[in-house]
Fold this protein.
Amino acid sequence: MQRRWLWLLIALFLVDAFLFCVWCVRRGARRYDARIWQAASRYGVDPALVKAVIWRESRFDAKARGLAGEIGLMQIRALAAQEWAQSERIQPFAHEHLVDPGTNILAGTWYLGKLLKRYQTTDNPLPYALADYNAGRAHVLRWMESSAKTNSVQFLSQMDFPGTQKYIRSVTDRYTLYRSAVESSRTQDNSR
């Protein structure tokens, strides 16, 4: 009889732990929503896309650091951060300021918006912008040969970095998920 109670207690503990983990993940995914919406509105980028990039880059960990010097939620490098600071006339500015989630989201959203605008003449700027965000402009230019200059399917097929292809797929899938969640909550709000 005591063994059954022990197993029941262990099972209850595991269920509680699982539910706590789910709660933490959901809380983390929503923690920065207000800042994401503010930055997205300011720079004309879909907030669901910004959130998808944050999810992929840092899993909502504001203290995340990358191997190439990237910092924060959106994993911003020093050069992109300096471009943003100059465009916003923020002086003095240091790359370490990107540890602040609000600053990081603003800089990253500005940069993402810049990349989306850079590839407006393509049939779908998103894969180009995400490839640039992940692998850099030099690689994107190399992959944009012949019809891949404007055809995103050709562009993806010429890409020789499987990691960047996976990055684009995962951000795009998460973007679709977040966008549908936003649209369903709008539908619920309108029906009230």
Remarks:
- Residues 32-182 form a domain with the Lysozyme fold (CATH 1.10.530.10).
